[in-house]
Design goal:
InterPro entries: PAS, PAS-like_dom_sf, PAS_fold_3. The chain is of the alpha+beta class. The chain has 2 domains: 3-179, PAS domain (Beta-Lactamase, 2-Layer Sandwich), CATH 3.30.450.20; 186-410, no CATH class. Helix content is 66%, strand content 9%. The chain contains 12 helices and 5 strands. It has helices at residues 38-44, 48-51, 66-77, 119-137, 142-155, 161-179, 186-215, 218-229, 235-258, 264-292, 303-362, 369-410, and strands spanning 23-27, 33-36, 82-89, 95-105, 108-114. Strands 2-1-5-4-3 form a 5-stranded antiparallel β-sheet, sandwiched between helices. A hairpin with a 5-residue loop joins β1 (23-27) and β2. α7 (186-215) packs antiparallel against α10. The longest helix is centred in the C-terminal third of the chain and has 60 residues, at 303-362. The chain is elongated, with a radius of gyration of 27 Å. The relative contact order is 0.10.
């Protein structure tokens, strides 16, 4: 079966199109269709006079949750590109699935679509089928629905919906290359590898914060045990108080770059995800522009203007992607420095912990309570240092890979 006839799990009532076919549509700021290519018109089943001037929802299928369009709209109105799996419908009532890359223009928006076929698509399609029915049956408001969709991305291990869509775009481009029997694309491989490093880093950050929060209860336990083993104000009580005071300082530092709105980890994650998504957008636009020469002009549409718009958008994606990479590289360096600083501060806690172990050996800890508490400290300290080391290594991976990519693209 050649590339022109390849299909993935064709379903009854599904309109077919080939993997190599990319199609696009351009709208005004309100989402009214201004133009598109011949593939868009053919697959939709509408004639151009029916499409031009019509709202883009003319091809919307009710099985796509409304939350998808809310998140898309929120992103592009802020000037950010976004992706989404979308189930559309034709004039005759058939349906077709696309992965849509939606990008803002000076006076509207453009959506470039490709045929999805990855494992991620299969999972999302299954979720859509169940959730769109629930969305309608329970009359879920749009904000709650959008929050539910973002939660799905987070539960899947992604730091943000943008990161999830960057991952999905990389998966779809790789699956498309495989379906078309192409060699693996270097840019797509970087996209996938970087996204994997980003999500591993995010997971470590979450676990690090949880470990440190759990650590906060141990000084209280030490004081309780000390009250049974020594007079008030004894050495163990002093050690527990010193440990508490030092750990509070580290905890505040940790929260400043792991937790809360606008923290360093979150900024880096979002900037990396934006850079990765723009890398994918650039590749899609590059291919679309190469095929534009052979596209059939649309009557009443300035085809020269269309080509200039697409080529200009490709250049913008390249420029914006480089800027996002440079900013993400700086944030990765800052994250690495902060992690190293906290690791150094942990050495001070280690000294206090060792003093506690010494006192444990000196005192007659008859019921083993103090020894067990110190054992907990040993375990938490080892876990925290391991996670800090992992974050530093992943930050270096992100920084080095992006720096290498930037150097390569300059040459």
């Amino acid at each position: 079966m050649n590339a022109h006839t390849t299909v993935i799990r064709q379903q009854i009532g599904e309109a077919s199109f080939a993997f190599e076919e990319l199609f696009y549509s351009r709208t005004d700021p309100r989402g009214v269709i201004r133009s598109g290519n011949d593939v868009f018109q053919r697959i939709s089943g509408f004639e151009w006079p029916e499409l031009i001037g019509a709202p883009h929802r003319i091809v919307r299928h009710p099985d796509t949750p409304r939350a998808v369009f809310r998140i898309l709209w929120d992103a592009i109105q802020k000037g950010n590109p976004m992706g989404a799996y979308v189930k559309n419908r034709t004039k005759s009532g058939e349906f077709y699935w696309v992965f849509a890359v939606v990008m803002p223009l000076n006076d509207g928006y453009i959506s470039v679509r490709l045929k999805p076929s990855s494992e991620t698509f299969e999972k999302v399609r299954s979720w859509y089928e169940s959730y769109s029915q629930r969305e309608r049956a329970e009359n879920i408001d749009i904000e709650t629905s959008a929050a539910n969709l973002r939660q799905v991305a987070q539960m899947s291990g992604f730091s943000s919906y943008t990161s999830f869509m960057a991952f999905a775009l990389g998966q779809e481009l790789a699956a498309r290359d495989a379906a078309l029997r192409r060699e693996k694309d270097g840019r797509t491989q970087i996209l996938l590898e970087m996204n994997e490093a980003l999500e591993r880093s995010t997971a470590q950050q979450v676990k690090l914060l949880r470990s440190f929060e759990a650590l906060q209860s141990i000084p209280n336990n030490m004081r309780i045990v000390a009250s049974r083993l020594e007079p008030s104000g004894g050495p163990v009580s002093a050690i527990s108080e010193n440990y508490r005071a030092s750990s509070v300082v580290i905890s505040e530092r940790l929260r400043s770059f792991v937790a809360g709105d606008g923290n360093l980890c979150d900024k880096m994650s979002r900037e990396v995800a934006r850079a990765l998504f723009l890398m994918g957008c650039n590749r899609v636009l590059s291919e679309l522009n190469r095929t534009f020469v052979a596209a059939e002009p649309v009557e009443g549409v300035d085809w020269v203007f269309e080509r200039e718009e697409l080529e200009g958008l490709e250049r913008t994606c390249t420029s914006d992607g480089r800027q996002a990479m440079e900013k993400a590289t700086e944030l990765a360096r800052a994250l690495n420095r902060s992690s190293a600083e906290i690791r150094r501060q942990m050495l001070g806690l280690d000294t206090i912990r060792v003093l506690g172990r010494v006192e444990c050996g000196r005192m007659r800890d008859l019921n083993g309570g103090l020894s067990a508490t110190i054992d907990q400290l040993d375990s938490f300290h080892a876990d925290i240092k391991e996670r800090l080391e992992s974050i530093m290594q992943l930050s270096e991976t992100i920084e080095n890979t992006m720096s290498t990519y930037l150097r390569t693209t300059r040459e």
